[in-house]
Design goal:
Layout lengths: L22 H19 L3 H16 L5 H5 L6 H16 L3 H24 L5 H14 L2 H4 L7 H21 L21 H14 L7 H20 L3 H21 L4 H25 L9 H16 L9
Helix pairs in contact: 2-5, 4-5, 9-11, 10-11, 12-13
């Protein structure tokens, strides 16, 4: 039992405190430790993946889900596109929770198609995984081999050359470093939306060096194409106008790609901006007991300008909810 009398403690030398690591570094280490700890409590990725494959197989098996059993590659096309766009929405919303869910939905589509292929005797999900694993190693010789690169543009050029060589190998049975007849544009699906197709075409061409030197050249091309559209309109040439309008859109896509922007993402953002401002106009008209269809062009323009100003106004901390 400790004595009830207070004892005089011998003073001890204090050890010098270790300098604290920067808060950012400490937070980073802490987050990393938490991630490792969470991962240790989870099932191994391979086991989780096998469980998911088994679930999908059960849904397609006799006695499984009637809807799943009715699906084909063709009927699933719409869902595949929808899931891909929902992943994009989650990224735009900066929502990790939403992104995690949507990536799972997209992964399920991959498994679904692989399961259909297995039933048809073509391939299974292990062939898909093995194929992309081997391709990533093959297409990155600067990481897994002895090839030297100086920039990301070198990587893209090597990628294009390797891809072309692989396409020839698929046709001839052997990979060759000799000049290849196959086009670098091969493999871009015609079923892509026009905007994405144009982006892929210009991206592929740029990978082999067919690109603008400076952005000024693209601006000049835009002015040229706009002038040609005016000529077609003055001549009441509808087919010519359609052709020139297509050229303008193609140049716009090329400009976005040259600037390192994704034209699909940029247009989606503009669509969202237009939708927000237009709804603002509708609300303002409703406050005055009117509909947009009842207003003149001048009144609509005033509402639009006001909506633009409001959309650009800074949000004050006190107004946030």
């Amino acid at each position: 039992m400790p004595s009830s009398r207070s004892k005089k403690r011998t003073p001890q030398l204090k050890r010098p405190k270790k300098p604290k690591a920067p808060a950012k570094h400490a937070a980073s280490n802490s987050a990393r430790r938490q991630t490792v700890q969470r991962s240790a409590r989870k099932k191994p990725i391979g086991r989780l993946f096998e469980d998911l494959v088994a679930v999908q197989a059960r849904l397609r098996a006799p006695g499984g889900c009637p809807w799943d059993r009715e699906q084909t590659h063709a009927t699933l096309k719409t869902y595949l596109i929808e899931e891909a766009y929902e992943v994009l929405d989650a990224i735009e919303n900066s929502s990790p929770k939403e992104l995690k869910e949507e990536l799972g939905d997209l992964l399920l589509q991959v498994l679904f198609h692989a399961d259909l292929a297995l039933e048809a005797g073509h391939f299974d999900i292990s062939d898909v995984v093995r194929g992309i694993h081997d391709k990533m190693i093959r297409r990155h010789p600067h990481v897994f081999g002895d090839v030297k690169v100086n920039s990301s543009s070198d990587v893209l050029k090597n990628w294009a050359q390797l891809k072309a060589a692989e396409k020839r190998a698929n046709a001839t049975g052997e990979i060759s470093s000799k000049p290849i007849a196959a086009s670098v544009l091969d493999g871009i699906p015609r079923s892509l939306p026009a905007l994405l197709e144009a982006y892929q075409l210009t991206r592929r061409a740029a990978q082999v060096g067919f690109d603008w030197e400076k952005v000024d050249g693209i601006f000049a091309k835009m002015i040229e194409e706009t002038g040609e559209l005016r000529v077609a309109l003055d001549a009441a040439d509808r087919a010519g106008a359609e052709d020139e309008m297509g050229d303008i859109l193609f140049v716009a896509v090329n400009l976005a790609r040259f600037l390192g922007l994704d034209p699909e993402v940029a247009l989606k953002q503009s669509n969202l901006k237009f939708k927000s401002r237009f709804r603002d106009m509708e609300k303002e008209a409703e406050r005055s007991g009117q509909r947009l269809s009842q207003l003149s062009k001048e009144e609509l323009e005033l509402l639009w300008d006001a909506a633009k100003v409001r959309s650009k106004a800074p949000v004050h901390e006190g107004s946030k909810k």
